[in-house]
Design a protein that fits this description.
By secondary structure, the chain is α+β, with helices and mostly antiparallel strands. The protein has 2 domains: 5-151, Fructose-1,6-Bisphosphatase, Chain A, domain 1 (2-Layer Sandwich); 164-271, D-Maltodextrin-Binding Protein, domain 2, CATH 3.40.190. Helices cover 32% and strands 24% of the residues. It is built from 7 helices and 14 strands. The chain has helices spanning 5-29, 46-62, 100-104, 176-184, 193-201, 215-227, 263-271; strands at 35-37, 43-45, 67-70, 79-81, 90-98, 111-118, 121-129, 134-139, 144-146, 149-151, 164-166, 207-210, 231-234, 255-258. The chain has an 8-stranded mixed beta sheet with strand order 4-3-5-6-7-8-9-10, sandwiched between helices. Strands 11-12-14-13 form a 4-stranded mixed beta sheet, sandwiched between helices.
Amino acid sequence: MPLEQRDLSRMLETAIVSARLAGQCAMEEINFIKTSIKNSTELVTQADSRCQQIIIDRIKENYPDHGFIAEEGEQGKIFKQSPRGGDRQFWWVIDPIDGTNNFAHHMLLFTVSIAVLYEGEPIVGVIFEPATDSMYTAVKGGEAHLNNSRITTGAAEMDKFSSVGLDSHFDNGVPSWTCEIMKRTRFRNLGTTALQLVYVANGGLVATIAFNPKLWDIAAGTLIAEAAGAVITDWQGEKIYPVDLENYETQQFPIIAANEKVHPEILELLKS
C-alpha cells in the first residue's frame, strides 16, 4: 500500500507521546531501581518492562492490529507479536530503555527508542533522552529533527578535534583499527547505541561503530541519522534493510553510521 504523509505523521505523533510517557516513568523510577542479570552481558531493571508496557499500551490504542518487536519479553526473551492486519505489515520496534547499564547505575545517559517498520524498513523513528528533554525524530523521506529544529550530520573530518563513537565490549580482543581511531580522534562510548546514532545525526559525532546491536537498538536511530545525511551500512558496506521481521529473534547488526566524508574512511579501516 502507498504510504501517505498523514499516515506517517499520525504514527510519528503516537511514537512521540509514547516515548515521552515512558521517559517520564523512567525518570520517576531511577531512584528506586531493582536490577537483575538478564544474560551474561546485560542487566535489566523493573523500569524496563514498565516503560515498555506503557509504550505498547499507548500504541495499541491507535494501532491494535500492528505488530511489535520489543526488547523485554518473558524469561529473558524478546517480546514479539505479529501484525493482524493482512498485508499491512507494520511493526513497532521498541527499546524502552536503551542504556540500561547506565540507568541501573543512576547515570542519566539513556534513551527511549521507538521505530515503525513497514516491509522490513524503518518509516518512523523517535529517540527521546528524558534527562535533557531531547526528542529526536524522522519519517521516511523527510528531515531529521531535534525538538522540531532540523539537524544534519555536517561534513567534519575525522581528526584530533572530532569524536567517533565506539562500543565498549570486544568478543575477540581489541581490533587494531579501534586503536587507530583512539589515536586519531576523541573517541566516545556513551553506553547507548541509540544516543550515539542521533549524535551522528546532529554532527556531535562524525561516526559511530556498533559491534553487536540488536534491531531495537538501531531501528529508530538509523532512520534519523540517514534523514540527517548520514551513510548507514554494515561493516562490509552493504545495506542493513530490509529485515525479515517475522523471523527476527535476536540477530545482531554490526553497523557503521557516519557523515558522507568519514564513512569511506571508516569502512576502509575496518576492511584493513
